[in-house]
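Note to self: keep these together.
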Amino acid sequence: MTGFLGPLDAQGRVLPQQQTRVSAFLISIHGALARQFAFTLPLKLETAWQTETNAQFYREAEIVSLLVRATAWVPDFALGYMAMIWETAWIPTPIEGIDDRSLAQAVHLATLAHAVHAGIRPAALLPVEASAADPFATALRRIEFESSRLLQAQILFLRGPDLVPFRDAVSGALERRHRDVRQLWHDTLASAGIAFANNAEP
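Structure:
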């Protein structure tokens, strides 16, 4: 087991089996974020942070679309069970101490997105010899670039004045989300023959 995707094929491309397993996880989590951002958006934006929610919805949807098209998919019979575990993990849970439903949902989304964009660095899994012509490799690099931008919005919201009275509750929720996302990501990588050492820690 190594810390990188591989072995690569003769053209320097990631093998379809690994592409399928990694993309399935990333589509699950980014798809969940896109859906939840969409349901959170009101018909009329009423607060400043909702404008960023609108932008993030489209960026998450773009990531899903990119992965669907850039991945060399092959049948993977383990994905049904794995996807059930992943999708269950993304379900919003109550945040103790925050009674405002819309604010609690925003905190849930921000903590989940923060855990994803800070803790998952898919491009770091690519070995240096990975082909620049591989659409999958290019997609992973693009996702990591977008994640670094999206992360800043999560940081600004979680540190913003609206959440000052709930700092302890937010910190606890953020820590739990990082732990859960990291564990599921590590499990997915291990199932694809990839060690954890190369994966970023939050």
